[in-house]
Amino acid sequence: MNAICKLFQIQYPIIQAGMIWNSGWRLASAASNAGCLGLLGAGSMYPEVLRENIQKCKSATDKPFGVNIPLIYPDIDKLIQIIIEEEVKIVFTSAGNPATWTQPLKKHGITVVHVISNLKFAQKAQDSGVDAIVGEGFEAGGHNGREETTTMCLIPLLKSKITIPIIAAGGIASGAAMLAAMNLGAEGVQIGSRFVASIESSAHKNFKQAVINAKDGDTQLSLKKLQPVRLLKNKFFLDVKAAEDRCASEDELKQLLGRARAKHGMFEGDLEEGELEIGQVAASIIEIQSVQEIVTEIITEYNTLVKSGFDTY
Amino acid sequence: MNAICKLFQIQYPIIQAGMIWNSGWRLASAASNAGCLGLLGAGSMYPEVLRENIQKCKSATDKPFGVNIPLIYPDIDKLIQIIIEEEVKIVFTSAGNPATWTQPLKKHGITVVHVISNLKFAQKAQDSGVDAIVGEGFEAGGHNGREETTTMCLIPLLKSKITIPIIAAGGIASGAAMLAAMNLGAEGVQIGSRFVASIESSAHKNFKQAVINAKDGDTQLSLKKLQPVRLLKNKFFLDVKAAEDRCASEDELKQLLGRARAKHGMFEGDLEEGELEIGQVAASIIEIQSVQEIVTEIITEYNTLVKSGFDTY
Question: Which fold has domain B3-202+284-307?
Answer without folding.
Answer: TIM Barrel (3.20.20)
